[in-house]
Amino acid sequence: MAMIRPAPAQEEAPSPEGLAFFETHVRPVLVERCLSCHGPEAQKAGLRLDSRAAALEVGGDSGPPVVAGDPDGSLLIEAIRYDSYIQMPPDSKLSDATIDRLTEWVAMGAPWPAGSGPEDEATAGSDPFDLEARAGHWSLQPVVEPEVPEVSARGWPRNPIDRFLLARLEGAGLSPAPEADRRTLIRRATFDLTGLPPTRAEIEAFLQDDRPGAFDRLIDRLLASPSYGERWARHWLDLVRFAETSGHEFDYDILTAHRYRDYVIRALNEDVPYDRFVIEHLAGDLLDNPRRHPTTGTNESILGTMAFFFAEGTHSPVDVREEMRTRVDNQIDVLGKAFLGLTIACARCHDHKFDAISTRDYYALAGHLQSLRHQYAFLDPPDRIDDRVLELQSIRSALAAGLPRSEAAGPPALPLREGDALFEEFSGDSFDGWFPSGQAFGDGPTRPGDVTPDPDGGLLRLEAGWAHSGAIATTLQGVLRSRTFEIESPYLHLLVAGTGGRINLVVDGFEKIRSPIYGGLTIGVNHGDGPRWATMDVSMWQGHLAYLELADGASSNYTGGTSGLWPGDGWLAVGAIVTSIHPEPPVPAGEAKPGPARGRVAHGELPAEAASLIDRYRQVAAELPEPTLALAAAEGTGIDVPVHIRGSSKNLGEVVPRRFLEVLSRGREDRADNRLALARRIADPANPLTARVLVNRLWAHHFGRGIVASPDDFGAMGQPPTHPELLDWLASEFIRSGWSIKHMHRLIMTSSAYRMSSRLFPEAEAADPTNALLHRMNLKRLEAEAIRDAMLALSGRLEPKLFGPSVPPYLSPFMEGRGRPSNSGPIDGDGRRSLYINIRRNFLSPFLLAFDFPSPATCRGRRDASNVPAQALALMNDPFVVEQARLWAGRAASAPGASPEEVVDALYESAYSRPPIGAERERAIAFLREGEAAGRAGVEAWADLCHALLIAKEFRYID
């Protein structure tokens, strides 16, 4: 009998998010790992995987390998999991992260661009790509402020926003919904701006304020609240896939991640101009005059660059080039979507299928991101450490001047063999070509005549020509990084001395986890003054790009490590670095170069005035504070990246100079060939995307949907704006206001449109069924964090403290797996807002996940708002909810002199911002009496009522 396959059901068009997911996470894997055997040139087992029809309908000898929406029923997923006799790819298993991405893709329905077939997998750049035609897309046109339209109903508009909306409504024969009542307005505005419910006192004060401008004053008060920054920081953290661990096998900590979260909160509360905020994110480490913390003086600007490093990481990856490529791809994806609303990552394997983004654009940006480095930056203001270092330097100079000159010939040239090459000998006056971080290594190698006090009260004469982290003071911390170089020889020999120092070779930017594969690329130095050779066997990495990282004793704990940051003395000195074909160093260490300590002058041999200088030196050195550190970007050697044909690092095309997107650079001479220039181009008012994207995000959070409904995709596959003139007017106003986000909140929220009721009117719904014209306010469900935080506010457990290290998450007995922390946090997170609960990628909160907390994998400008049984189960059974209901009941029932009816009124007003209506009060009292009759008297009965109020949909929806 012939096999008869049913005709495929008519399917909905894939979402822009789904297509972007395919282009970012699926197509590159298919191209690199599958199509050589299952593509246009070969079809093993009769299977092709270069089109959706081939993968989902035609299949091969075993039928279609992909069943849309059913990963467990898909042979493809079974094969890549190595769960059966079919194991693909046959040469090596895909990484766990890649398997998870392919599984997620199948589960979401296997979205694949329409018309994508075998011809799509041609060599990158061979597809027709008409930049001029694609450059005509609406979002790439300059922002031009439109005329504010005239309207008939002149009494309704409060500001230009209303006139733009009303003009469209009148054109459709519609009228705006009436204004919501005051209780609805204060609840709406308070949750929108603070993520917390209004208190009964705040509601009463607003109801009693009968002066003109009461709502405007309410908005101003909420914008001035510290809770505003917490609320809107959470929205921003979704865009940068914020998490505090790296995921994968062991879920290692991303050290100091909480400092970034706190930075965002402060920036929003201070209303830092958005263009400045953008520049800080992309190049905050390169600013000559960084923004400083208002009280501590620490560098705020550099903290923005931490956002580059919140991507998921692989523990000790087998293919470090692929790890680098995946990391850079994620950074490009987040940069493009968060700031520009463009799916740039879709151009990794080929020119973008729909937008004016070529694969050359992709690799031009990849060069910028491949050039930056991972560091733990020193944040302190100059007067905290730098001024003390200058004093120490001055004392050392004075001590050296007081000693008789001891002339000595410089060290002989290092004898090199054939096959040796001198990488560095530190013979100059500066670290030319090296990148210092911190103060330990000073401004250059040791110089003739340099001295430093020793622990016994004498002086050490230092040999010239060493990169020495203890020359100024062993208590200083710092790191010295080399230029990026290609590993050509199989051995690297370093002449070293020191105590507690470390040397890392960072290959292809992989910094974090050293062992097991990368353990040989780290050398500990702990033998003291005598010079020794340290050798790295780098034969496995020949042809790879790398740089050296020299870390002093204390700093070695936060380079290449994951366990934590801690203080400590120590020092490292490096005198020469040689690349070689020989496994042995060129000469014995003693013959290579004199050690860093040339000799000692005993205390008794010093001039009398030296004693007071040494005493002062010791005092200043002892008072050196521990530096304030944070993960951040660091500048490295500029790297131009070749096009990876079909996205493969094994098939390279022409090298593309670093620059900005071509479509946004026409008519400009500056190429933006460095990261700071790139940041300024993105934040340029002439950029048509940056302001549009941000005001659309604000609009979406206030109205439940953006003017552009696809906030992360302003390209051809995104949704067109419902009100393009309004969008451009808002973008123009945003720039004119000095990029003030608070100004835009105030403008949007003081409009008549924002005050509309969400009530449905049949005639209006028939004419505008999706509310695209915004004839009424949209009903909005609270996000997971706001639901949890509101419960804490009602129970009285909410801790108002801002900032600080995150609280460990509560781990139920069912939350098992590799990387599970040894200790669980408290059920209620010590009362801290959800923003401050540690986000561990492998152990996300089940309660928050039930309410669509997003997996921190990429930019998410719009969260899902599902309605699933797990939400009801979480509200009924989660111990956190049960405990908050009990605490809330205890507060309410203990109100002195309050009758049961008054307590019920207070509960309703606290939960819903309104008193009970109709028979609600009577039903609540009857419920309490039934509980008492069943043996649940007192607080227990009240707790049941409070729990019921928390479960109700009204609690988690904003009218």
From TrEMBL:
UniProt key word Transcription regulation: no
Record's signal peptide: none
UniProt KW keywords: Heme, Iron, Metal-binding
GO MF term list: electron transfer activity; heme binding; metal ion binding
Any Pfam family hit: PSD1
Domain (Cytochrome c) ranges: 13-110
Record-linked PROSITE patterns: CYTC (PS51007)
Domain of life the protein comes from: Bacteria
PANTHER family, sorted: CYCLOINULO-OLIGOSACCHARIDE FRUCTANOTRANSFERASE-RELATED (PTHR35889), F-BOX DOMAIN-CONTAINING PROTEIN (PTHR35889:SF3)
Name of the protein this chain belongs to: DUF1553 domain-containing protein
